[in-house]
Structures are given as structure tokens and as C-alpha cells.
Amino acid sequence: MKILSGREIQQAVHSCKPSRVAVAFIGRDWNTFIPDVQNLQAVIVSPTLGSNPDAITDIAKQLGWDNVYFLSELHAKMYIGSESAVVGSANLTQNGLSGEGLVELCVELNGEENLHELCRFFDELKAQAQGQYPTKISKLAQLKKLKTAWNSAFVNN
User: Fold this and answer.
1) Phi-psi region at 50: left, alpha or beta (left = phi > 0; alpha = psi -120 to 50)
2) Helix %, strand %, coil % for the chain, to 5?
């Protein structure tokens, strides 16, 4: 286990080449921090104010709606690759991963047992998400609500 802060978090996320990501919030520049989008297989995100609705739409276009899951109560942040994972406070946003702005703290984990346990937890979150928003239609309806809230909070002010 290695403790990470600042730009070390971004570097560790790049290095782990995540195939699974679970974060509360996704920013419009999400793909700046996930350079190997082709490795990305599944994303769980909270479809609440804090996540950019255009970023969610973009990620869904690249992965397909069947690989993007909504879990409203999600607060955990984890980036799971085949050789390592990054877990901590950093969302998939400029504030979370740039090393500037918010002060974040994460740990980098290695080892088959740790990765297996994180994948098991990811699958539990995914099952919860599928219960909340089981269809593309339910996800799109929530995304529409998020977009309205986003525009009201950030665009129209």
C-alpha cells in the first residue's frame, strides 16, 4: 500500500489503467484522467449535482449505457485496474485528480487479494445501482433531472 496526495493520485490512476471506476462525481474533463478509455469496462457514478451531465453522456457514448451505472448514494471513489487500484477521496474531476484545488488523499493497492476484494465490492455497488436505475430509460430520466438541476445551479446563474 502506498499513500498518495496531489499529482501522485493522477499518476497512480494513469498507471493502474482502470477497467472499473466508481466515483461520486464525474467532470467534463474526465477523459484527461483516464487516458486508456479502451480499457474502461464499467463506471458507477452518482447522478446527482456534482456530476456533470454532459460528462456522463460522453462516458455512456463511449462505453454504452449498459456499462454505466447510477447509484445516487455513492460516495466511494475507486479506480480498479488489473495490476493495481487507487482508492480514496478523489472524484473523476479536475478538482479531484489534477493535484490543484482540493486536497485529496488516496491509497494505491496492489496484490491479487486486494484487487479481488475491491472487484467484489464494485460488483456489490453495481448490483445496488442496477436496482435503482435498471434500464437505459430510467438512467436517461435521471440524467434529464440532473441536467435541469445543473443548468439551474451553474449555467443560468
Assistant:
1) left
2) 50, 20, 30
How confident is the model over 1-53, as pLDDT tens digits?
999 999 999 999 999 999 999 999 999 999 999 988 999 999 999 999 999 99
CB count in 10 Å sphere of residue 128 = 15
Tens-digit pLDDT profile for residues 66-122: 999 999 999 999 999 999 999 999 999 999 999 988 999 999 999 999 999 999 999
**What phi-psi label fits residue 111: left (phi over 0), alpha (psi between -120 and 50 degrees) or beta?**
left
How many Å apart are CA 130 and CA 93, to the nearest integer? Answer: 24
| Amino acid (1-letter code) at residue 149 | A
Q: Confirm whether pTM is higher than 0.85.
A: yes
Count how many Cα atoms sit within 13 Å of the Cα of residue 83 in the half-sphere of its side chain: 7
**CA dist 93 → 51, 55, 114, 138 (Å):** 9, 10, 25, 24
